[in-house]
Amino acid sequence: MANKLVIADMNIWQTTRFQLDLMRPLIMGIVNVTPDSFSDGGQFLNAASALHQCERLIQEGADILDIGGESSRPGAPTLSVEEEWLRLEGVLKAAVSLGVPVSVDTCKTEVMRRALDLGVDIINDIRALEAPGAVDLAASHGQCGVCLMHMQGDPATMQARPSYPDVVSEVKAFLTQRLGVLSASGVLPDRITLDPGIGFGKTPAHNIDLLKRQSELLDLGRPLLLGWSRKSTLGQITGKAVEDRLAASVAAALAAVTRGARIVRVHDVGATADALKIWQAANLCN
Ligand code: HH2
């Protein structure tokens, strides 16, 4: 079959129930239903507190909820499908009725399948749908949105000694390859966003290189989603502990948006929403 060039609109992210307009930057609010996430582990482990957090993030301005049941911090243990699902099921079930798109942050095909069956709109996968069956699932399951992220190695060992000849070229080549695999399997580009994976098998210098040269990733023709929130590179630069990285996180989100990111994945939705409103107002004045 001849390769068909499909040009997708960079301003649209098609997801199961919602066609998201990316003309203004969107905020993806993080809800970690885990005991061990690097910045909020244990805060939302029970379903009631997780749901309360979902509602709070929507009130503060979240455009998308990203709900995860397994930490991907460096050295995090891997859960079984059943362990991860036990944390997620009740929260996802309730979250899909809150009126905003819901994303599931998982790299397990079976967890993706169950989440999509509950009506979840987006698969956010730090392994870019590399697990067996994941691409076919996305291709066959309606028009769910997908976020493909780059990671070098896996969470158990990724920060041991990350190394690249050129981090930006390598991330770009990987995301190009994954885009190609998804397109060949029938996942239309308008369903896909791309993420260079800040902190995933990368030193602070690699992460900053990705920020400085972020515009090179725009050549891939799909919207970029960036997750700088509270990450250790911000701590390295500011000398601040994880709980004191609010200002640094907001600044990083704005820097990412200024360099073309269309979606920012953040813990602190209210502060990010205020900052983006000012950024937009200033932009509109130009
Ligand atoms: N970062 C984390 C988890 N999922 N997904 C995408 N697309 N991009 C990211 O940068 C990203 C992600 C890590 O952050 P968090 O979920 O707060 O921590 P933990 O993995 O410890 O739960």
Topology:
Blueprint (H helix, E strand, L loop, with lengths): L11 E3 L4 E3 L4 E7 L14 H14 L3 E5 L12 H15 L6 E4 L3 H9 L4 E4 L8 H7 L4 E5 L17 H18 L7 E4 L8 H9 L11 E3 L5 H7 L7 H13 L2 E6 L2 H17 L1
Parallel strand pairs: 3-4, 3-10, 4-5, 5-6, 6-7, 7-8, 9-10
Antiparallel strand pairs: 1-2
Bound molecules: 6-hydroxymethylpterin-diphosphate.
Structural description of this entry:
- This protein has 286 residues and is α/β, with parallel strands linked by helices.
- It has one domain (12-152, 163-284): Alpha-Beta Barrel (TIM Barrel), CATH 3.20.20.20.
- Helices cover 38% and strands 15% of the residues.
- It has 9 helices and 10 strands.
- It has helices at 47-60, 81-95, 109-117, 134-140, 167-184, 204-212, 232-238, 246-258, 269-285; strands at residues 12-14, 19-21, 26-32, 64-68, 102-105, 122-125, 145-149, 192-195, 224-226, 261-266.
- The chain has an 8-stranded parallel sheet. Strands 1-2 form a two-stranded antiparallel ribbon.
- The protein is globular.
- The N and C termini lie far apart (47 Å).
- Residues 1-5 have low confidence and may be disordered.
- 6-hydroxymethylpterin-diphosphate (HH2) binds next to strand 3 and strand 7.
